Amino acid sequence: MLLRKNSQFVIPEPEVPAEGMGFHNPLDPNRDNADPRVVWCAETGYYYGISTGNTTLTLFRARSMAELFRAGESKVIYEANAADDTYGYLWAPELHYVDGHWYIYTSTHQTAENKGFKHVIVLAAKTDDPFDGFKLGGHINHDVYAIDPTVHCWKGQWYICFSIVTDGQQKLAVQKMKSATEVEGDYTIMAQADYDWELVPPYHKGGSPINEGAFFVERDGRLFIIYSGNGCWSDDYILGIIELVGDDPLDASAWLKDDEPVMTKGNGNYGPGHATFFFSPDGSELWISHHCLHGHNPSVTGMVRHCHCQRVYFDETGFPHIGMPVAKDVYYPLPAGDCGV
Fold first, then answer.
1. Phi, psi of 164 (to 5 degrees)
2. Non-local CB neighbours of 305 within 8 Å, separated by 6+ positions
3. Which residues, at least 6 apart from 80, have a Cβ–Cβ distance to it below 8 Å?
4. DSSP characters over 98-167
5. CB atoms within 10 A of CB 283
């Protein structure tokens, strides 16, 4: 039997970077960056960053990750409007490069009146540069309550994963894509909250068990989904991992959820979750961006969520290891190939 992961793997201690070649988490301590998405684009030489908005989405860019969200440029690149049938609550926008074009996958109210029901939408870049703005690309599953969409190309076929509400729970579903803005066939529910560490009150008891905020990670022929459990205002928002162990992503039995989380609270940070991933400028390192709280939140009320970034490590089997969020006072090295400041 092949070893699926090395549970004894120890994440290396990062080297102390030279002056100007490191950064402190969070990227901007004064900004609410819930559900952050960070991307490096070699063609433009910029990092791009985006996070949850209400009726507008703002895109940030910077030459070094150390300046993203803080000292770089920013621009409103989309505003919800009735002509597009978009009405706000533009949650968890994810910027992706699909078949030679930039798209943002997010969600919105179903109608102007029905603000309690959300569905997935796709925004398409107006030009080859995402900083030039976006227009509506399409609505996906307009009558299905869904949030937190993400996409990935696996063996030549694009798939979308999102969190849906059914049977009083938030579950993860995956669906085949016909194009960057359309889906085809039915979706498959392939994960729900099962383990004690993703069923922590108060979201579980008297509320809805939650799996959400999925993102695909591919490594050496293995495909993973890293997702969030519990609720985003909880100290115990947490990251879990699911692996495709069968052949068909639309077969629910082909997915295996690991029984241990891959990121938990610690080092003075609470509620780490809603992760996205990006490669370093030289392509040699995979990095995680996620949000977390900077204080204990026993009342589970709205708090500022800060964007943190750190390197992901892989053991000899190809399994990803992340650990706890890096402490705020650690001067952490920038991604390999970053120009620094």
1. -115, 160
2. 32, 33, 34, 35, 232, 271, 291, 292, 293
3. 55, 56, 86, 87, 88, 90, 108
4. ETTEEEEEEEEESSSS-TT-EEEEEEEESSSSGGG-EEEEEEESTTS-EEEEEEEEETTEEEEEEEEEET
5. 12
Place 207 in a pLDDT band, splitting at 50, 70 and 90. Answer: low
CA distance 238 to 240: 7
CB under 8 Å to 185, separation ≥6 — which residues? 175, 176, 250
Domains of the chain: 22-333 (2.115.10.20)
Residue with tokens 């068909």: 248
- What DSSP assignment string belongs to 181-243? TEEEEEEEEEE---SGGGS-TTTSTTS--BEEEEEEEEETTEEEEEEEES-TTSTT-EEEEEE
Looking up tokens 């978009």 gives 86
Determine what percent of the chain is predicted with pLDDT higher than 90: 91
CB-side neighbour CA atoms (13 Å) of 212: 24
Region of poorest pLDDT, from 122-126, 178-182, 255-259, 294-298: 294-298
Range from 149-163, 195-209, 255-269 carrying the lowest mean pLDDT: 195-209
For 313-330, how does the pLDDT look when each residue is reduced to its tens digit (9 = 90+)? 999 999 999 999 999 989
The Cα 319–Cα 53 span in angstroms is 33
The SS3 of residue 83 is helix
Instruction: Supply 130's token pair.
Output: 């995402």
d(CA 201, CA 321): 26
User: pLDDT band at residue 206, thresholds of 50, 70 and 90?
Assistant: low
Angle at alpha carbon of residue 243, lines to 217 and 65, rounded to 5°: 20
Peptide bond into 202 cis (omega under 30): yes
Q: Which two tokens stand for residue 165?
A: 């509400």
Q: Note the pTM of the prediction, 2 decimals.
A: 0.97
